[in-house]
Amino acid sequence: MKIRYGVIGVGGHGRNRHLIPLTKLSEVEIVAVSDINKQRCEEVASQFKVKCYQDYMEMLDKEGLDAVSIVTPTGLHSKIAIDVLNKGVNVLVDKPLGANLEEVINVVKAAKRRGSKLMIGYWSRFSPALQFGKEIMENGLLGEPYIAYGYLVRRRGIPGIPTFIDKSLSGGRGALLDIGCYVLDNLLTLLRFRKPLSIMGKVYTKFGNREDEVKFNWGNWNAKEFSLDDYAVGYVRLEDEISLILEVGWAANVSHNEEKGYIRVLGDRGGLEGVGNEAILDISFHGRTKNFLIDTKPVLKKVDMALEMIKAFVKSIIEDTNPPISGEESIILHSIIDGIYKSSEENKEVKITLPDLL
Ligand SMILES: NC(=O)c1ccc[n+]([C@@H]2O[C@H](COP(=O)([O-])OP(=O)(O)OC[C@H]3O[C@@H](n4cnc5c(N)ncnc54)[C@H](O)[C@@H]3O)[C@@H](O)[C@H]2O)c1
């Protein structure tokens, strides 16, 4: 029997990173899509030869779905995810799981209550380069990690469409939530989601609120109404004496024209350096033998990361196993994001207390 699948939110990402990969899986039957934008919903439904519902609750009530992807704007993720989970349907929520820690905790609780599967759509997790880094660390080649640094900055890439900059849709947050979550997910994956103890951070609005900047970025918006962070920096003390530092921005006066992602994890036996964008695409390991310093680069396969993400979710349903990207991980990740916003607002270091759920 095939998995009956629905997709809620079929804009750019819903189509490209969910629906298209889903068509490649023989074990899945895409049954319906839902989008409040009637025209878009009908167009996509006809393209994929499925039903269209403007109201996702109606889709859930009528279609007897086994699984759903949620690819709406971030500010709606947690509410829709809880509605879906309460119907006993398995859910893949695109990144980030919610706008803030409280929302994330509520989704994780709903999943636990219903026993349905919850996976978060960090397609970047399926990067072979990141998997290589994980293997290096699991094999002890890095020794004890003590520094983790992550950078993800665009020269001019404020995503000027309502999904990302209308506060009710974006969840009231900017670059730190939207792309900072990738940097944290990449680093925390390598660090086995060690818990944060305290955080110092600062968020800035330096470009999005300037009329003369709009034309350099993506889309169009009213600069007078823009008040989201377009740059953020954080210093996080993790358990085991690890320092994690991150810097993310939708716009900055940097030399690289394309979005640039970079991570570095230093240990007492070796170090990892990764480059890419939201996903780490290339990675190297730096260590030593008895008499030589060595640099090692893996030979990496090219993979369709979005397809791998969808496959992993579907596999977890078929085999009734835990999905590889959990809600509990998002609790740790969002406690850091919330901590940076809080520290910035209060101009001081903030202590982190994680919920008992973990
Ligand atoms: N993983 C990634 O690399 C990546 C990249 C881009 C976007 N995203 C995430 O995907 C999500 C969507 O981004 P996008 O670029 O596709 O945006 P988008 O604006 O192109 O699409 C969002 C769609 O959701 C629909 N929608 C809004 N409210 C809805 C509701 N209540 N019910 C059903 N549909 C509704 C909108 O009409 C729109 O068609 C965001 O959370 C974003 O963070 C992830």
Automatic annotation (TrEMBL):
Gene3D superfamilies: Dihydrodipicolinate Reductase, domain 2, NAD(P)-binding Rossmann-like Domain. Pfam families: GFO_IDH_MocA, GFO_IDH_MocA_C3. Residues 3-122 form the Gfo/Idh/MocA-like oxidoreductase N-terminal domain. Coiled coil: none annotated. GO terms for molecular function: nucleotide binding. Residues 134-273 form the GFO/IDH/MocA-like oxidoreductase domain. This is Gfo/Idh/MocA family oxidoreductase. It comes from Saccharolobus caldissimus.
